Amino acid sequence: MHKHQLSVSLYLNYFVHGIGLIILTQNMQALGQHWQAPLATVSYVISGIGIGRLLAYFILGNLSDRFGRKVFVNLGMLSYLIFFVGMAVVTNIQLAYGLAILAGIANSALDAGTYTTFIEMGGRQGSANVLLKAFMSAGEFLLPLLVANFEAQKIWYGWSFMLAAAILIINGVLLNRQQFPAKNQSNSDAVVVGQQQSKTRRWLATVGLAGYGYTSMALMILYTQWVSLFATRTFHFSSVLAHWLLSLYSIGSITGVLVIFWLLRRGVAETKLLVAMNSGSLLALAVICFSPVASVSMLAAFSFGFTAAGGVMQVGLNLFIKCYPHIKGRITGIYFTFGSLASFTIPLMTGWLSKQSVATAMRFDLLVGLIGLAFVGLAAWALHMPATLNQERQRINHIDRQIVRLLNQRFDTVTTIGELKQQQQLPVLDQQREQRVLQQVAVKSTQTAHTPYLQAIFQAIMHNSRAYQTDLHKEDMKHD
To answer: Which residues cross the membrane (predicted)?
Structure first.
C-alpha cells in the first residue's frame, strides 16, 4: 500500500467535493434560465443535497464497516460524477432534485469511506483527516473565480460541472490502482481508549461527541448565514466590510486547519484541542455579536474561523472513532447524521428568530456555542483516564524521533567543524569548549535533579562526536 499516493487521491476527491458543495448556488441564475424557473425553485432543488445526506449517512456508514472503504469511496465518486454530468444538461426539475439528493449521497459515501481509511492507515493518520477540510475550502475558493470568469467570457455554465467530472474520472483511475488498508483494524491508541472506559463513561462520551457533531455544524451554518446581514443592520457596517467578515472567517478556517494538523502531529491530545478551540470560538463569537468596532470584529471573525471551522469538527470525529475502533463507519455515519440534522433545523429556527430581529438570530449562535462547549467538556471528562504504560511509551517514541533528527543535524555540523579544524590544524579535543557546553546544560536544565544525568548524556554525545571527527580524519588521510 502506497500511503502517499492513496492520500493524494483521497484529498483530490475532497477538492471536488468542495466544488460540489457550492456549485449549484454559484450557478443559480444560469440554472434558473436553463430550467426556465424562478430562483426559489432552484433553491428548492439545492435543498435536496441535505435530504440526501440525512438519508444516507447512517446507512452507508454501517455498510462501509461490512463491505470495506474502497467500495464507498468509489460509490461517492460515481454518484458525484452522475450529479455533475447530469446537472449540466438536465431540464426536468424533478430529475434535477433527484440529482441533488444523489450529491448528498455522494457526500455521505465519501465521508464513510475516507475518514475511516485515514484512521486505518495507522500512525498519526487521524491528523490527516483535518487536512480534508483544507482541500474542501480550496474547491470552495476556486469555483467562484471560475464561474465568474465563465460568466464574463459568456462561456457555457456547464463547463464548471464538466471540469469537476473530468477530475473525478482521472482520479478514479489513479485511486483504483491503490490498495486500501484492512477495514476496522485498530491502532493502539484506539484500543486503549476503547477498552479502559467504563460503560457509563463511554455512554457519556458518546452523548457529548454526538451532540458536538450537531453543534459544530450548527455554529458554522448560523454564522455564515447571518453574519453579513447582522453586521450591516445592527452595527451599520458597510456592505464590503460585512462581507469581509465572512472572508476573514474563511481565511481563519484554512489557517486553523494547518495549525491543528501540526498540533496533532506534535502529539497534542484531541480532548485538549476540542476544549481550547471551542472556548476560543465562543469568546470570538461574543466579540462579533456585541462589539461595534470594525477592527475588533475583523480580528474576531478571523479568530472564529480559526477556532470553529479550522478542522476541529474532524478532531471530534477522530476522538469519537477512538471510542469505537471496530465500527468506524457506523460512528462516522452517526456523527455526520447529527451534522445533517443541524443543516436542516438551524435555518428553520433562525428563520423564526429573525422575525424578531436579525440580531436575535445571530446571537442565538452564542447559545449554540455554549451548548457545544458543554458537550465537549462532557466528552473530555468522560474520556479522561490515568496515563498507561503504552501511552507513555508512545510519547517516548515521539520524543526519541525528535532527538534522532536533532542528533543527525548535530553530526552534520560536527562534520563541518571537523573539516575546519583540519584546515586550521587544530586538535579534535577542545576541553574548554566542552566545559562550556556542560555549563550551558546546567543553566538550561529546568529540573535540578535531572542536571547530572543530562550532563552525562552530553558527555557521551561529545565523546562520540570526537570519535566521529577522528574517523573522518583517518578516512581523509587514506584518500590522500
So the answer is: 12-31, 37-59, 71-90, 96-118, 130-150, 156-175, 203-224, 244-264, 273-293, 299-321, 333-354, 366-385
CA distance 420 to 415: 9
pLDDT at 390: 67
Largest CA-CA distance found in the chain, in angstroms, rounded = 89
Q: Are 10 and 74 in contact (CB under 8 A)?
A: no
Nearest Cα residue to 210 out of 334, 388, 109: 334
7 within 8 A of 179, measured Cβ to Cβ = no
Angstrom distances, CA of residue 91 to CA of 34, 97, 308: 7, 11, 39
Average pLDDT, the chain: 86
**DSSP of 75-99:** HHHHHHHHHHHHHHH---HHHHHHH
Q: Does residue 123 sit in helix, strand or coil? A: coil
Alpha-carbon torsion (220, 221, 227, 228), positive or negative = positive
**252-283 confidence digits (pLDDT tens):** 988 999 999 888 888 788 899 999 999 999 99
88-96 CB contacts, 8 Å cutoff, 24+ apart: 88/157, 88/158, 88/161, 88/162, 89/158, 91/34, 91/35, 93/35, 93/37, 93/41, 93/45, 96/31, 96/35, 96/45
Output the pLDDT for position 391: 61
Length of the chain: 480
Answer for the pair 29, 86: CB distance below 8 angstroms, yes or no: no
Tens digits of residue pLDDT in 85-120:
999 999 899 999 999 999 999 999 999 999 888 888
pLDDT (tens digit per residue) in 27-62: 888 888 888 888 778 878 888 888 898 889 889 988
Q: Domains plus CATH for the chain?
A: 1-185 (1.20.1250.20), 188-386 (1.20.1250.20), 391-479 (1.20.59.10)
Whether the CB-CB separation of 199 and 325 falls below 8 Å is answered with no
Torsion of CA 14, 50, 374, 132, to 10 degrees: 0
Considering only CA atoms, which of 436, 426, 480, 428 is closest in space to residue 458? Answer: 436
Quickly count: other Cβ atoms within 10 Å of residue 359's Cβ: 18
